[in-house]
Amino acid sequence: MPLRVDTAIPFGNACDIEVLQDGLMPEVRLAADPHGGSERLWFCFRLVSDSPPERSPAKVRLVLKYPDTMLGGMPPPNMRPVLRTPEKDWERMEPGTHLDLTDGRVQAAWTLDAPRLWVEVAFCYPYGRPEVDLLVRETRGCWKADTIGVSQAARPIVRLSNAAGEEHAHRPGLYFLARQHSGETPGSWVLDGLLRRMADADTNAPLVWAVPLTNIDGVEQGDYGKDNFPYDLNRAWGQPAMRHEVMVLQRDLQRWKKRCRPVIAVDFHAPGGCEVDGAYFYVADPVKEPDQHKADQAWAERLAQAVGPEFMAPSFARMANYPSRWETPSFRHYCRDKLGICGLCLETPYATATKTLLTREAYREIGKRLADALLRELAH
User: Fold this and answer.
1) 42 has a pLDDT exceeding 90
2) Which of 34, 202, 265, 305 could hold 175 in an S-S bridge, CB 3.0 to 4.6 Å?
């Protein structure tokens, strides 16, 4: 067929694929693949043209099936995937169109320029090991990459650090991680911006350790990774840990704790697929954990003020009181109970924050502002 969908690409994910070419405009229909998990959201694929350029259609209609069963996949007009071609790097697509079928099902649709060779489409800007390697190269040797363990599928888990630290040192310490849910790429881009800014601080920086791709199996496999089995990473922070990757992270956090004065840890996430209110923090419940709530709230207020209203939601401090499949400890609980520090979770949307379109540079800007705020706090 002149058009075909290829998922054998980095972070590839698509299923239930149909290519219809009997009308004036070819139509490609597909869905996000749950990859064995409870939730769906992430998709990433290459649409390939096998026709000579002079015989290719001008436009292609892309139809996303079942958005109402994707996590936060409604309403479709809030969904702004990204695309790239051999000639152009990733850029945002226009808002999706909401389609109602006669039996009540819902679809989302976009009209694309037909590929001369190929076009890749993803739910949001991909971020994987090549981007981590680029970060290390472009920050002039500030970040040392070390393998701290392996995943359940034996992939290396890489931690970046600006120093090894020394036991019983008084140097303030920060610990960051991203992609406990592997499809939540905005978290990695925000962390990328933060680490680039920390690199500029040079010798004035605190001891910083960061794991940009914690669920490396899910990242490489194109999983969404939210509430997947047996536990997603952020629901596996008990003692003993319910995922091998979490045990690796716990051991590394304990090493970090001994080699600095721990200040705060931040876990970078993304929320429901079509949320547009802006970024926000999850903090402790004021009724169940009043003292921890006060400390979390204070950090959230200072950091949100630094990031600014063009990126932060008006309600920037929230409680994670949504239904969960497992009432088990998270990263935040581990930071409180085992490290004695605040562990904040930052949720940054996939497409827009209030009225701001979120490009890669916008994500990095959020990270840079967070870094500046943290550096100011530590300078007091």
Assistant:
1) yes
2) 265
